[in-house]
C-alpha cells in the first residue's frame, strides 16, 4: 500500500466506505438471504476457476473482466440495493488478478462492483422494474416490452458507475490527466453493458418464473461462449506479443550495445502518445512502433554494428538503410498498422534533412515523429559502453533546442509533460558491468529552456569513438543511401510507407 500514490489510496478507501454505506441498510430491512447467497455463490463460482489449484491451467477459457456481469445485474433486478451490493463482494475478492498489488486491486474491485450493483438496483426500483418481472404464477407473466425500460436504465447506471470509478483510479493511481483518464471509457463499455443487462434481465425473469433459479442457469451458456470468444482474442494478442518479442530479442542479440533500448523507446513513445490524447486503440500500436523501430538492424552486417573504429561513408550508408530493411521485415504483419510507417520514417527530420526519403514537416507520419523523440531521449539518458548517460534535464534541453528543425515540437512538449507527471527510470542495460546499480532519472526540475551542455550525439558530426551512437543514428543526414536490393526506390515510394 505504501507504493500506491496518495490519491489512489484515498480513492480506494473512499470506494470501500461508499460500498459499506451501500450495504449497511441490510441490517435494518428484510432481505431474501437465500437469494443473496445463491447469487453471490454463483458469481463467486464463475470467478473462481482461474485461481482453483485443480482447475487452473486446465480451464482453457480465460475469464475476461465483465464476462459474468449479467449475474450482478440479475441481482440488481431481483434484490434490494443493499443486498445487490453484497452479491458482488465474494466473487470480486477471490477473482484472479495478474498485477500487483493484488489484494488492493481485489478490494478496489469489490467496492467498485458493490457500488455499481447497488446503484443499478436503486435505478431499477425507482422505475418500478420489479413489478415488470412477473412471478411464479401462470398469470404473473413478465411485462414485455415495458420491462426493458427499467432494465436498460439500470444497466446504464451500472455502466456509468463503473466507468466513473475506472477513470478515477486511472487518474489517481496512474496519474493520467483528467482529460484523458475518462476518455473513451463510456463509449467502449456502453454496448457490452447493454448486452449484459439484457442477459441479466433474462436471468431475473427465469428466476422469478415457475421454473425457479435452476432455469436461470441456462443463461450462463452464452456467457461461456462469450468467454471462448475472448479466449481466441487473447490467444491472438499473445501471438502478436510473441512475434514482437522474438524480433526484439534478435535485435538485442545482434546489437548488444543497445540492449533494452527498444523496450524503453516503446515505453516513452506510449507516454508521449498518451499525453497527446491519442485514443487507447492507437497507444498499443505506437508502443509497438517504438519497440520495433530498430528491427531493420537485423539486415545490417554485424561487423558494421559492432565496429570499434571510425565508420566509413559506405558503412554509414549501410547503417542508414535499416529503416527500409525494418519496413520490409514487418510489411506483412497486419496488426502493426501505422507502426510500419513509423519504423520506416523514424529517422526523418522536420527540415527534410533526415533519411531514408528526406520527408519534411507534415509528410512525416505522426507515429514516426513520436518515435523519433522517444528514440533520441532514451539514447541520451541511458548508459552505453562508450559514454555515460546524460541527466534527463540535459536531454530535454537538447530536444527542445532541436525542436522545429529535427523534432516535432508537439511531441517534445508531450514528452516534457509526461516526464513531469511520471518521471523516468532507466533499467540496468546488459552492456553495463555486473552489479552496477540501476540508475534512475527524475523529472526535470528546471524551467523549460534553461541552457544545458549540448548533446554531442545530436550534432551532425560522427562520434569520436567511431561507433555510431544511437542519437547519431537518429538524426544525422549522412550520405543518401541507394535502395537496397529488393527495396523500393525511395524517390518513387509512398511517403507513408504503407
From TrEMBL:
What domain of life? Bacteria
Q: What class of enzyme is it?
A: hydrolase
This protein's record includes keyword Hydrolase: yes
Quote the InterPro entries the UniProt record gives. Cyclic_di-GMP/3'3'-cGAMP_PDE, HD/PDEase_dom, HD_domain, HD_GYP_dom, HDIG_dom
The cross-references to PROSITE patterns, in alphabetical order and at most eight, read: HD (PS51831), HD_GYP (PS51832), PROKAR_LIPOPROTEIN (PS51257)
In residue numbers, the region (Disordered) covers 433-498
Q: Which residues cross the membrane?
A: 6-24, 70-95, 107-127, 147-173, 185-207, 213-231
UniProt entry keywords in alphabetical sequence: Hydrolase, Membrane, Transmembrane, Transmembrane helix
All copies of the HD domain together span 258-380
Spell out the molecular function terms from Gene Ontology. hydrolase activity
Write one Pfam family the protein is assigned to. Answer: HD_5
Limits of the HD-GYP domain: 236-431
What EC number(s) does the entry state? Answer: 3.1.4.-
- Compositionally skewed regions (Low complexity) per UniProt: 450-459
Q: Where is the composition biased (Pro residues)?
A: 478-488
Q: What is this protein called?
A: HD-GYP domain-containing protein
